[in-house]
Amino acid sequence: MTFSEILDRVGSMGPFQYLHVTLLALPVLGIANHNLLQIFTATTPAHHCRPPPNASIGPWVLPLDPNGKPEKCLRFMHLPNASLPNDTQAATEPCLDGWIYNGTRDTIVTEWDLVCSSNKLKEMAQSIFMAGILIGGPVFGELSDRFGRKPILTWSYLMLAASGSGAAFSPSLPVYMIFRFLCGCSISGISLSTVILNVEWVPTSMRAISSTLIGYCYTIGQFVLSGLAYVIPQWRWLQLTVSVPFFIFSLLSWWVPESIRWLVLSGKFSKALKTLKRVATFNGKKEEGEKLTTEELKFNLQKDITSAKVKYGLSDLLRVSILRRVTFCLSLAWFSTGFAYYSLAMGVEEFGVNIYILQVIFGGVDIPAKFITILSISYLGRRITQGFLLLLAGGAILALIFVSSEMPLVRTTLAVFGKGCLSGSFSCLFLYTSELYPTVLRQTGMGVSNVWARVGSMIAPLVKITGEVQPFIPNVIFGTMALLGGSAAFFLLETLNRPLPETIEDIQDWHQQVKKAKQEPEPETASQTIPLKTGGPK
Asked: pLDDT confidence of 536, banded at 50, 70, 90?
């Protein structure tokens, strides 16, 4: 008897699973808020130099840049009792007395003057947040495999609530960055535990649907963020508003059961049996649950239990050939998805459209994109879906090179299409990765794979700087990486309608079956060609 068959006995898709998926999905609404928060809390409004305090009362003349627009970072040098300069050849100086900002939004940019020579600190704040997600991936992956999925999920909720609230009260930019780093770490713990607890409690036939529904919560979260940002123009209040709900989610997480697979493979049979009986009762199958015994669990899962006594770690992902291939291809797919996704998602200001409207459009495209993705992964398979989503995204980004900035509608359309493909890619990757790695290494594999998405999201802002050399260079790099990631996906195993592998031996046997299936037609072809050779004229 396998885990899937045991799950069928207590109800593989009943009221418990619906409540379980709901409890996992609700916090995902807030994950979108934190991931994309700096679109609104770090908006750079129009600005110009503040006049010196001893300047005479009257109109303050600003120097013009090469495009004929007022300079944002320079002002004419002011001498007491001197007349105002009226030509572009007069001497200029930096904004020694600060800046005057247009608009009503209060952001970290306006509070800490992150403009001109300090403008890169804004990108650094986002990169440090992504660095938190990067480091949190392998750290919480290892901790989850050691202490369980549920404790890490609850701790991550509390950590995000506390660090997010701390960021709202930050007295300085360095303190703000530290709290945002901790927010990133906790988001990794939430994402990884949510994915694992979803796929391990939901039957094979429903995994794609439940994963996509959780993904839709992220989409809805983008709408919620736009609305909150429009209503709350003060960045501190907005930061606090999106953080406090995670205190409530940490309490709700006590209703989320631990992974039965993890409990059994960790030798916690009595707790696993108690959890199964509770699920059976909740699903209206109390009698079936009462029939289960500890001895039955041990007997039926003896092979998996024996294999689990061997401790696995990061080195095993490189030691076993099939896991090495899976890790390499998934890492490239994750890297290219995060790399390209955040180049579009965090570049809302660059398209010349109202940021609230464009954020709603960016969120809205996820609805059809993820719906098409769920149909594709359910009928065409995970491998084909993953490959083509990244290829299409790469093509859209490369197409931006040939569209003039004077055609904002076309550029926005291509960006929205590319972002939709990359959102679908994320949805597919979370499911696909959890299905490819065996249970004994699943959380570790998810953590390592996720690291590469965060590396990509960290590097993306730095790549944009290359646009100062040639405007088309960033899109060439982003598009090419997406094409490479899509190509790598075609070298992975197909997981459609397959049970989750429990041990390393399971995935090795699976790989051998695939290789054998590919080799079987060859002898038939050879046997058909022999008569043609021997039966011809001499």
From this structure: very low
